[in-house]
## 1
Amino acid sequence: MTTRKIFKIIGLFIAVILGVILLFFAFIWGSFEWNRYSKKKEAIRYQKEVCDTIKTVGGNFPIWLQGFSKKELKEIHFYLQQGKLLTRDTVIGSVPNEAKIQSQTINLPFDKFNIDEKIIVYIGKRYYVLSGFSYTAGYNYGMFGPVGPCECRCGGYEKINGQEAGSGILIKKYGLVDYQLPPR
């Protein structure tokens, strides 16, 4: 055998080894992509069949407040509006953060309410109308992708005072000053 033929065989052997290695990594990448694609399709199906049919919101999710003084946070009024009438109301007192943090978090005081109802929050002579509650389908993600089954998560409110909620923070300067509460 000539040296040329030996180098040809070694080169062919190296090319086959590299091809097998590339094929192995392509298979792993394809597996990840297929898993991601199938989970995405499953989430869309779950959203339509399960999450969009939920009519009751499990309350007690957090509401963020910003720009209010300690005095204004001592008494916060919550009203639940069904249609054009107020059905429930409650008053809570919040203990403001001791640190010099502008933002404060409180939990919604209603345990359950209808998805079409509105929540009116009265803080510091300002009103905030929260509406558009919804659930979204999602997965818990681990290091290599989704872990566990698909689940519906409360997305919170989508609108504040009839406008898109954005970050979802109730900012003092955007509150309604001249809002008239509906009748009971």
Note: The chain has one helix and 13 strands.
## 2
Amino acid sequence: MPGGGDGGGPATPRPTAMSVIAGLVALSRAALDVALVVALPIVAVKLAVRISRNLLPHDFSEVPLVTGLAKLLGVTLGIALIYARYDRRYFDPHALFIPESPWNLSLWQFLADRANPLNYGIGTLVDNPAGHVANATFLVLMSIVAALLAAAVAAPFLFWRGAMARRAALLGLALAVFVAYLTIYGICLLLWSLYLLNFWTIALAAVMFQYYRGRAKHALRP
């Protein structure tokens, strides 16, 4: 007699071996995409550290006020750019995992759009943030960015003189820009990987946190 359960209703479909394999393949592919995107900033950081060693004053990394202000400026600028470019829909947890999610992107779509540094120019801050009038939060962020910018430019002149101070200020600004992009990249990567991997992202975030915490102790040291 056709039918399924004890009540005579239709049988609940069970996953077949092929569907399980297809699911594992899809998860593995998503994990490989995320691993590639995670590896890119790691390579970029290593290259930046290697290149900057020949440009930085020999004691640049030993002055935490200068490097700390530059990094704080970069993080704040990155958050301001994210806030200006994307509206609440991009960060709504209820819309994160649905098929219409703004983070439902292929690897190449992620790299060409969310991770594209050309999409985060100064025009992002000048134009209407996220398509609406700038609110108090955005104005506070921009005030903090302006204050940190002034402090980051002035700080090197407390420790060096002349051309060395100017070079340290320029390199501090370059560090701030680099950190701003890493901040944007990290936020977008977190949201994209959350969509792709769901709870597996927590484990990925833990691994990345441990890695970058270790790298932070050695960054920009001669």
Note: The chain has one domain: 57-216.
## 3
Amino acid sequence: MESNIIKHETGTIIICGGNPLEGCPKDWDEAKSIIEKLNEGKEDRDPQWSFDCGFKLDYDGGLLSISSRFYPPKTHYGETWDGTVHIYLLDKTIEEKKFDCQTLDELKKQVDEYVNSIIEKVQSVFK
């Protein structure tokens, strides 16, 4: 009987999915080598291949991201909160919007509305 299979009167438990078959990594060094080949040529922000416990294979990563910077009212920057929101698909800018607001509350309201409109656009594509 295999050491990773436990038989019980109420059922069978297979620990780590059983023993490795052809193509499954035998250890973490081999898994690391496979992952390096699968992710060759990918940028850090691209979806990446990885092995989880029991050598289950994952392909994970973000497709869309938001990055922004807003400058506060200061003598060097000016009297308003101003800056830009960038929307990225993978690592490429697909949309950007500039903001120039008198108050932090106004900035928050406008940015939240803008980002929510982007979320609604994306969700509508997948309905």
Note: The chain has a mean pLDDT of 90.
